[in-house]
Structure formats: C-alpha cells, structure tokens
Write a structure and sequence with these properties.
76% of the residues lie in helices and 0% in strands. The chain has a domain of 92 residues. It contains 4 helices and no strands. The mean pLDDT is 80.
Length: 169
Amino acid sequence: MTKKILALTLASFVMSSVAPALAQTGTTTATTTPIHGKKDKEEREKEREERKEERKLDRAVDLACMQNAVVKRDDKMIKAWDDKSIAIKTALTARRDALKSAWGITDAKVRAEALKKAWRDYRQTADKAHKAFKETKKSTWREFYKDRKECRGRGASEDKTTESVDSHL
C-alpha cells in the first residue's frame, strides 16, 4: 500500500511540473522592440523641444493688449458707477423734496397719497438705476472676457478673476 501511495505521489508531482509545458500549444512569435540609435534619440529630443517651444508661444500673453483690456473694463465700470451714483443722488433729492412737501399738507388723505407717491417714485427711479448698472456691469465683463481671449494664445489665462469681484457693487 505504501508503494502505491508513493507511486501516486510521485506521479502527481511529475504531472504537476510537466502539465503546464504540455498545455502550451501553438506557435509563439518573439516580439522585439526596435533598438533606436543615438541619431533617432537626438531627433526625437529635438522634436520634443520644438513642440515645447510652440506650446510656450501658444500660451504667450500680449501684455499691452491685456493692459488695454483692463483699462477699458475698469473705465466702463467707473462710468457705470458714476451714472448709478448720479441717478441715486437725483432720486434721493427728489424723494427728500417730495416727502418734505407731503409733510406740509394738512389734509391726511392727500398727505398719505403724496407720501405714497414720493416713495413709489423713489423706488422706481432707484430700481431703474440699479438695473442699468447691473446690465452695464454684465456687458462690460462679457466684453472683457472676449478682449482677454484675444490677448492671449491658446493657453489658459493667468488672471482667473470674474465679475464676482464686482458683485458687492
């Protein structure tokens, strides 16, 4: 019995070491990677450097163009702020005069109507000034984005600022 167990163990050992070799069928082809000479490597390096230089040029920013774009944007924002300020100042002056006049009326019903009209007129004028400023701000920044795009190559902009910086105005 021991001989049978020993023979079976020996046979399974032999089969386990030979089976993978027997399982491989078909032909195999050897793949080799081409060996590049020194000249090929230098050419590839030269091409890589040329592409790198092209990318640098693509990202180059026309600094004078960007300066002009910033000045153009901020000049428009300053003018829009001035226009809004003048409109609000005018509305406040009109409101002050209308309220002063309304408080001089002795008839309560007429006075109430005059007060209501003074506040309504002020609110309408102020809303109109705010809306005009908001639209000017929006169009100014839209135009700046277009100008900024024209001032640079295909690379990303260095200035990631958006109109959100003016959101508190």
